[in-house]
Input
Amino acid sequence: MTNGIVNRPKEADSSEKHAKFNEELHNYLLNQEGNPAQRYGLLLNLDPYSDRLFSSRDLYELVIICERLLNEYSLNTNKRWEVDKIIWGINKFAEDLKTLCLVALEQNKKVFAADD
Output
C-alpha cells in the first residue's frame, strides 16, 4: 500500500511525497499484534485491496501510531547492515508516514492510501 498527500483521491498519482507500507511489514506487525490489531488498528486493519482517504483526525492518530512504532522498534544504530531488515523497514516506514501526515496536516490536505 502506498500513501500520498492529496486533496482528492484522483490526485494520488501526482503526489510528490509517499510512504510505502509493504506486505512483509504489514504481515510482521499483524503477527506481533494479533488480528485484528488493537494498538495499531488504524494502520494494520486496513483492507490491503482497497483504497482509503484519511481525514485530519485519522492523520493525528497515524502520527501517534508512528511514534509508538518508532519507540517500540527503536534503532540503536544508523548502520543499516547492523539491524534486522524488518525492524529497519518498520522504522523507515514509520518515519516516512509520520512526516507525510505532518506535512498533510500543515497543508490542510489528506493522505490517500492506495492499493498497489
